[in-house]
Design a protein that fits this description.
Order of helices and strands: HHEEHEEEEH
Shape: globular
Number of helices: 4
Low-confidence stretches: none
Number of strands: 6
Strand order of the largest sheet: 2-1-6-5-4-3
Distance between the termini: 27 Å
Largest sheet: 6 strands, mixed
Strand content: 35-45%
């Protein structure tokens, strides 16, 4: 089961890089809670409608955004990943190149919560591995 959880997370990043929204959504629970760093001022996105809204918004702000999984750790029901995010801001052309961390909670083969963090420490806290 643990490798399957990593595979689900990997599939979301591959679908995003292909810009395949249907494949992306198929990896998520219909009631998913999705927390983005790129659009964090908008808060948490809920369900498929929220994820679609995030998808449209992030591609408007960073049309060439290419998150790449660099490292993943299976934590049972959760998967912790280091992600290399690269892209350019619309209008400004300012490049974004940085490592961010992602925690996904998986249940019944689908992601029920997905959140991005600036630091590994924040991600580990969210995953319940640090106090």
């Amino acid at each position: 089961m643990s490798q399957e959880n990593v595979d689900v997370v990997r599939a979301t990043f591959e679908a995003f890089r292909r810009r395949d929204l249907d494949a992306f959504l198929s990896c998520f629970d219909p009631e998913v809670e999705y927390r983005s760093l790129v659009l964090e001022v908008e808060g948490i996105y809920h369900g498929y409608e929220g994820v679609r809204s995030w998808w449209d918004s992030v591609l408007t702000v960073f049309p060439d955004w290419k998150p790449q999984l660099e490292d993943t750790h299976n934590l049972g029901q959760r998967v912790l990943s280091r992600v290399r995010a690269e892209g350019h801001g619309t209008g400004s052309g300012i490049p974004l190149e940085r490592d961010i961390w992602h925690v996904a909670e998986i249940s019944d083969g689908r992601i029920k919560s997905s959140a991005f963090f600036r630091t590994e420490h924040e991600a580990l806290e969210a995953a319940g591995l640090r106090e």
